[in-house]
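thread from #wetlab-drylab

HS: before we spend reagent money on co-crystallization trials with pyridoxal-5'-phosphate, can we at least see a predicted complex? here's what I'd submit
DV: go for it
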Amino acid sequence: MKIGLILLKLLKAMNNFNFKQFNFSLIKTPSYVISESLLRHNLEILSRLQNETGVKVLLAQKCFSMYYFYPLISKYLTGTAASGLFEAQLANEYFNGENHVFAPAYKDNEIEKIASMCEHIIFNSFRQVEKFAPVVKQNNHQVGLRINPEHSTQTHAIYDPCAPKSRLGVRLAEFQNVAKSKPELVDMLDGLHMHTLCEQNSDALKETVDVLIKNFDQWLHKIKWINLGGGHHITKPDYDIERLKRVIKRLQDNYGVTVYLEPGEAVAMNAGFLVSTVLEIQESIDNISNVIIDASAACHMPDVIEMPYRPDVIGDVPDGKYKYRLGSMTCLAGDVIGEYAFNEPLNEGDKIIFTDMAIYTMVKNNTFNGMPLPSIIAVDESGNINIVREFGYEDFKQRL
Ligand SMILES: *Cc1c(COP(=O)(O)O)cnc(C)c1O
């Protein structure tokens, strides 16, 4: 790979977002720059999937909560999935659509408000159903339960809710026990939820649904909907969407249920950039020069360290003559984004543009070391820049 392929893919998706013409040098750094046309590219794929199958797609807000775009997203998707009160509230204010929520546990003093705002409230245990389902029913809203199908399709334990000792979802044995000892709790369920994937194709989903059907068949007949969670990389070019459609149809045909998907990444994948500036270039140590930029992995793209992975940078080529190790202004020795090679030497003041920076970035960032938060910028279909939000000293101070 890479840059050729990536640029090609990007350019294909870009429609009116002309990368070459877009003047990144006008952007104050660091900034997240989110393109409406790149976002729309994903939304059109998801909306076609809804139209062709009857599946309902929700935006998982924990991945991308830039509510500036909620009016646009709500034209394409059915609704949102929240991880708790605040995300549910954000969707309630800005997203015109269904409001779903799942949390590993709800708090006594929050459940009333959540139950009034969210049509689907998904619980993580039968105890939580017992405690809070009456409040949900009073609001004429729906009760769901997250199950753990106990079928891992990935090896990355931190992102695997089916990993041993997982706290996420009810296992079959417990479900069977409760069905015997307290059947009224099972009767209260309007739907089931599972979330087991992370950045995966539909083969992993199919396998998991096979297990789901094998183990939960009798209860699937009793519910109105099944939510298959997120982690479906639907908008990636190599995603097998036809197999996804077959999985959806099988559930619809067998059980007469409404099927929900709640992807985060697939909604805003490749729709944004993190733009930073080269502050200093050090003497090379090992034929690779350390470069200090005004963006930080630890603060602005924490998945680079957590996953970990090496984000793509515009202009990086495998056999580039000029080699650099991009690192941040923070004091953290490990706040290095990666090694890159360019055909032209870098200079102070140059822009370094990281790709695929809409997802799991602004929702996760922080001000460690007193680092400023990146501005949030939207680029509309005509290429106009709209500075949605800028941050300063007060934002740092207010959190302390
Ligand atoms: C994280 C999460 C999602 C979204 O996952 P993506 O990998 O961003 O698609 C959806 N549902 C639940 C319950 C999640 O925890």
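DV: The first helix runs from residue 3 to 14.
HS: ok that's useful, forwarding to the group
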